[in-house]
């Protein structure tokens, strides 16, 4: 059955290429984790961006992701197939809003985002189950990113040296 989905997508199609996290979503195990990992080099490259540019990119990635993920899901004829991981990339960027990008924060943010994305605590679970299309695919990861971001900010408040450990 997996081959049926593969026949409906093309890595030459820029929409599919982005929605599949530059191909990372095609890794046959833990595609969401690999999709989240793809965001790490992008986050490192954006570490010195002005905050407003980082915010603008994050908002753009989230809104454009609705189209990317929805179109790719339609082309695959499967709602939220595991190989669609642009939502993880956008969720990781949301995780790091107003968070200094350092080795400890990247590790903590990655782990926190994956925990929220995998376990889907309220309200992530109901969003994931009730919303469909590109909005549904994106919104649960947007909320997971916001929750991971809140946790990172709490960590920074409780342990100010956290982001300067390395």
From TrEMBL:
Q: Does the keyword DNA damage apply?
A: no
GO biological process per UniProt: phosphatidylglycerol biosynthetic process; phospholipid catabolic process
Alphabetical keyword list: Cell inner membrane, Cell membrane, Hydrolase, Lipid degradation, Lipid metabolism, Magnesium, Membrane, Metal-binding, Phospholipid degradation, Phospholipid metabolism, Transmembrane, Transmembrane helix
Name the coenzymes or cofactors required.
Answer: Mg(2+)
Indicate how the chain sits in the lipid bilayer.
Multi-pass membrane protein
Task: Tell me one GO molecular function of this protein.
Answer: phosphatidylglycerophosphatase activity
- Bilayer-crossing residues are 49-69, 90-116, 142-162
Q: Which InterPro entries match?
A: PgpA, PgpA-like_sf, YutG/PgpA
Q: What class of enzyme is it?
A: hydrolase
The catalytic activity of this protein is classed by the Enzyme Commission as 3.1.3.27
Q: Which GO terms describe its cellular component?
A: plasma membrane
Question: Which residue numbers delimit the YutG/PgpA domain?
Answer: 18-155
Q: Which reaction does it catalyse?
A: a 1,2-diacyl-sn-glycero-3-phospho-(1'-sn-glycero-3'-phosphate) + H2O = a 1,2-diacyl-sn-glycero-3-phospho-(1'-sn-glycerol) + phosphate
Indicate where this protein resides in the cell.
Cell inner membrane
What is its pathway?
Phospholipid metabolism; phosphatidylglycerol biosynthesis; phosphatidylglycerol from CDP-diacylglycerol: step 2/2
What does the record give as the function of this protein? Lipid phosphatase which dephosphorylates phosphatidylglycerophosphate (PGP) to phosphatidylglycerol (PG).
Entry protein name: Phosphatidylglycerophosphatase A
At the highest ranks, the source species' classification is: Bacteria, Pseudomonadati, Pseudomonadota, Gammaproteobacteria, Alteromonadales
């Amino acid at each position: 059955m997996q081959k049926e989905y593969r026949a409906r997508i093309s890595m030459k199609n820029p929409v599919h290429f982005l929605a599949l996290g530059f191909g990372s979503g095609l890794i046959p195990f833990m595609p969401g984790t690999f999709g989240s990992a793809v965001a790490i080099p992008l986050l490192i490259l954006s570490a010195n961006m002005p905050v407003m540019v980082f915010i603008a990119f994050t908002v753009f990635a989230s809104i454009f992701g609705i189209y990317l993920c929805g179109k790719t899901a339609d082309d695959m004829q499967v709602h939220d197939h595991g190989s669609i991981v642009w939502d993880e990339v956008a969720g990781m960027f949301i995780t790091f809003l107003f968070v200094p990008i350092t080795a400890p924060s990247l590790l903590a943010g990655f782990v926190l985002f994956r925990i929220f994305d995998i376990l889907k605590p309220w309200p992530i679970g109901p969003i994931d189950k009730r919303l469909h299309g590109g909005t549904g695919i994106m919104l649960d990861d947007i909320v997971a990113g916001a929750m991971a971001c809140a946790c990172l900010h709490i960590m920074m408040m409780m342990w100010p040296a956290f982001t300067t450990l390395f």
